[in-house]
Every structure is written in C-alpha cells, then in structure tokens.
Amino acid sequence: MTTIVRKMSGLLIDLDGTIYHGSKRIEHADKLIADLRTGGLAYKYVTNNSSATPEDVADRLKAMGIEAYADDVCTSAQAAATYIAEKLPGASVFVIGEKGLREAVVRAGLTITEDNPDYVLQGIDREFNYSRLAKAVRYILDGASYVMTNPDLLLPTENGLQPGAGSIGASLTAAGGKQPVVIGKPSAILMNYSLNRLGRTAADTWVIGDNMATDIAAGHASGCGTILVLTGLTRSDNYEYYAEIACCKPDVICTRLDELRSYISTYRGI
Ligand SMILES: [Mg+2]
Question: Is 14 annotated as catalytic?
Fold first, then answer.
C-alpha cells in the first residue's frame, strides 16, 4: 500500500487555546513561532474573533514575547468584509460588531450605514441591544443579505463562558427568518481567504488548532491537513466526545507545543 505524504509548505494556526489563553502564552508557543520564522515555513494566524484588529492581535502576541506583525493575522472580520466586497464592491453595510469588524469593513472599501443597507454584517458586539436587533431584523426582512462573522455560541474568557457572535446571531435568525452566510471556522470561507493571504494551496497547508468542531472541521472543509493540539478545549479525556460532534478526526494529535515543534521539525527537516 502506498502512503501519500502531504507536503508542508504553509500553516494556518489558531490563536486562543493554541498559542495563548487570554493574556497568557501557552508553554513553548514562543519557541514554536521562532522555529517557523527561522525555518522559513510560511504561516498565518487564523482567528474567529472579529472584535480585535490584526494590529491589536499582533500587539497581544508581542506582549507575550512572540514576534508578530499585523500581516500575520487573518480575522473573520477581514474575511467577512472581503467576502462582501467581492460580491458587491462598495456595498453599504449595517454593522453589529466591534472595532475589528468596523475597521475591516472600511478597509475593504465598504460603506458603514445605519439606514437601508445592502448587507447586515454581524459579529460579537458587547454593546448589542434591542434597538440594534430591531434595526438588523428590519433590514433582513426588507431583503438585505445577512453575513455572520463566526458561529461560536460561547467564548471562554477569564470570567468563564460568555455568549459569542453565534448567540447574537440566533436572535437575528429567529426574528429575521434568514440563515446567515457564516464566514468563520468551520466555514471554508475564512480558510480560503487565509490560504489566499498565505499564498499556498490547501494541498500543501496544514491547519493547527485546539477545537475539533471549528479548527479541525474547517481544515477538512478546505482540504488542508489537520493537527489537533491538546492545549485548549480538547483534552485526551474529552477527545472522543468532540470527535463525534465534529464528525471528523485530525490527521495528527500533539499533546503539547514542544511535541508539535518536534513533529514539524521532523516532517520538514527545519
Ligand atoms: Mg482555539
């Protein structure tokens, strides 16, 4: 039997639960990224979080001692704004979201509007209220297209689990009667946007993350290789449970990031 060995010329790396927990760097993350930079292995960070700008994310990584640039970061906000700009250049957009989403919309050449938009674009918004919900639903009922940055229902935070973009989206969907186009993981839209930015094809790129239902499922949806790290959500004692929910399995499992470093180093010879 012939074993097909997949090339490794690029990596798409999750952040929360893979590189850091909140403001705390995960052990060996700095050495992992230093290895990639030294070895010249192309990578992008891929995050479902739409609230922070790529500059904010790079600053957070730098504060943890990890060399980082805004261009290293692909957010669901950037992928969502690019998706809309490709469908309808210069579209008007009603935004439910935070700074990262608003900036991405403007940078994509779209117009933020409070009235009669072509698109309702919704992410996490910690100032979300009934008046914003009522406007969004009105526009969706009037025929605006509805795009959601990411489907996460809950977010792990330093104060425990809190509602994510998907929970806000559930209220828009219930009242507006329209399912959104979902951009973030497990959707292939964010992955294809990130592959484009990386300048690599799915066939020689690997996705690394801690979440079976988002990272590993998105890797499968986009045709990339997949490496699960047990540094965040998934642990050896809940792996089977999450594998069943995600309906997929990773190509490789690494318990810690030093194990991942060795794997990449052996695989690529860096
Ligand atoms: Mg994660």
Answer: yes
What is the whole-number distance in angstroms between the Cα of residue 127 and the centre of ligand 1?
Answer: 24
Q: Is 96 within 8 Å of 80 (Cβ atoms)?
A: no
Active-site option among 16, 118, 210, 215 = 16
The DSSP element (H or E) to which 160 belongs, if any, is: strand 160-163
Distance 234 CA to ligand 1 centre (A): 9
- The phi and psi torsions of 83 (rounded to 5 degrees) equal -60, -45
How far apart CA 202 and CA 151 sit, in angstroms, is: 23
3 state SS of 253: strand
> How far is 49 from 47, CA to CA, in rounded Å?
5
Query: 77-182, which class in CATH?
Result: alpha beta
Return the domain boundaries, the chain. 77-182
The tens-digit pLDDT sequence of the chain (270 residues) is 445 568 999 999 999 999 999 889 999 999 999 999 999 999 999 999 999 999 999 999 999 999 999 999 999 999 999 999 999 999 999 999 999 999 999 999 999 999 999 999 999 999 999 999 999 999 999 999 999 999 999 987 778 889 999 999 999 999 999 999 999 999 999 999 999 999 999 999 999 999 999 999 999 999 999 999 999 999 999 999 999 999 999 999 999 999 999 999 998 865
Please, are residues 129 and 137 in contact by the beta-carbon 8 Å criterion?
Answer: no
From the CA of 14, how far away is ligand 1's center (Å)? Answer: 6
> How far apart are the CA of 7 and the centre of ligand 1, in A?
24
Q: From the candidates 14, 72, 210, 215, which is the catalytic residue?
A: 14
